[in-house]
Amino acid sequence: MDLRRFGVIGAGIMGCGVAQAIARAGSPVELIDLDDDRLQAAQRTLRSNIRQQKFFDRSAPPVDDQLALIRMTTCYDGLAEVDFVVENVTEEWDAKAGVYARLDAVCKPECVYAANTSAISITRIGAATKRRDRVVGMHFMNPVAMKPTVEVIRGHHTSARTLDAAAAFLKSIGKAGVVVEDMPGFVSNRVLMLTINEAVFLVQDGVAAAAEVDRIFRECFGHPMGPLETADLIGIDTILKSLERLYEAYWDTKFRPAPLLRKMVDAGLHGRKSGAGFHSYAS
């Protein structure tokens, strides 16, 4: 499948990671966010991340060459000619639905939409567009550059052709995909969010400190990171939103967020990106 031009909506951690992967593969990409402040922050993040990648991957193109392929803008008009769009906005339905209405107004009919979501139904996202068969879920893991595999979600109307396009896109950026069916949370987050949430309850209930919980998972199970270190990497605010979406989807109390999560979000303890979460990241 011939995919030449790409768009990425949302210039946060995940959006920057996807845009970086596309530029690393030598393709142009439109990176869109709400305002110039966010895009300037993304520019700094991308330059730092690409420099770091270049240090470990000498075969990567020069930093400035990769950055030149990423056009940052607040305008959707540049998406008129793209073949594949990856959407990475916050896990809030109104925000996502608004993005897809704007995409439908600009993108050519054959353009594929890939929703990078942790918990929102791909079928529901497809229903918010005029091309339900050309919408697919694509759950990238953080950090994007270091994760070789992506969870691909088939919505109720997702066509075989769209799945082929998703596979071709992933292959073009050096990644593989595992296709699963559409239920909120899919495979990864239905398991991961429960694990993290229960680990938070352990800390909240005084069973163990965060460092002890994570040490048990690293040293007893051989996990590279403990669940609370993982939460800090993803973002405590993102964990809370994902659990809220899962609870709304299933009405199952097992997805009820630990009160400590809400307290931490209210306190601004969002993990690595804020400098502190369950662990401290002060330099």
From TrEMBL:
The keyword Mitochondrion does not apply. SUPFAM superfamilies: 6-phosphogluconate dehydrogenase C-terminal domain-like, NAD(P)-binding Rossmann-fold domains. One of its GO terms (biological process) is fatty acid metabolic process. InterPro entries: 3-OHacyl-CoA_DH, 3-OHacyl-CoA_DH_NAD-bd, 3HC_DH_C, 6-PGluconate_DH-like_C_sf, 6PGD_dom2, NAD(P)-bd_dom_sf. GO terms for molecular function: NAD+ binding; oxidoreductase activity, acting on the CH-OH group of donors, NAD or NADP as acceptor. Transmembrane segments: none annotated. Pfam families: 3HCDH (PF00725), 3HCDH_N (PF02737). NAD(+) binds at residues 10-15, 33, 91, 96, 118, 142, 273. PROSITE patterns: PROKAR_LIPOPROTEIN. Residues 185-281 form the 3-hydroxyacyl-CoA dehydrogenase C-terminal domain. Residues 7-182 form the 3-hydroxyacyl-CoA dehydrogenase NAD binding domain. The record marks 139 as: Important for catalytic activity. Keywords: NAD, Oxidoreductase. This is 3-hydroxybutyryl-CoA dehydrogenase. It comes from Jiella pacifica.
